[in-house]
Amino acid sequence: MRTCCAQNRDTGRFFGWLAKRYRRRFAHKGLEPSQKQLLKGLTSSGFSGATLLEIGCGIGYLHQRLLQAGATSAVGVDLSAKMLEEARAQARNLELAERTDYREGDFVELADELAPADIVILDKVICCYPDADALVRKSARMAGRVYAFTIPRDRWTVRFTLWLGRVLLTVIRCGFRSYLHDLTAIDRGLAHEGLVNVFDESTFAWLTRVYARR
Fold this sequence. Notes:
Radius of gyration: 16 Å
Oligomer: single chain
């Protein structure tokens, strides 16, 4: 049986393989449709002057876009050292290095070392973590004003894609897995933390939600 540490290591390696590809894709195509929806939802809630915490930040282009548009500072957390290398390089190129801070590791384990932020973002991250309850509970408590995420929609095509991904990852002996967590349970947990859904849009495969403090 794999330990959490082993799974985190494999997850970091998996996304490390994709780091440069993500950067090239963003340079050519910009934000994905679901990320444009996330930006729309954050804009409607207001992020000017806000501090940001992006969990599973990848190469950083989402929070860096928000910094360019008026947010004050950002902390990015990711399991992949290579993703964070790309994020730091991009922050330097955009002259955002002094307004960004990057931490490598599992957010659930690092949470006590991090300061709360006005806005907490998890873009396609909850689906990559086995214990959604712990991740959502700890991250929601860090959100001073707004909490936003993007997760897979619960439909047969998404379920099939996740199943196929598990098969391929098993073949290459990679411990990373994607999960389709219960949205009702996530919503209930956020309500318990005092957060109310204020924005809801979706693409064919992804659901974007933004929550605000009561």
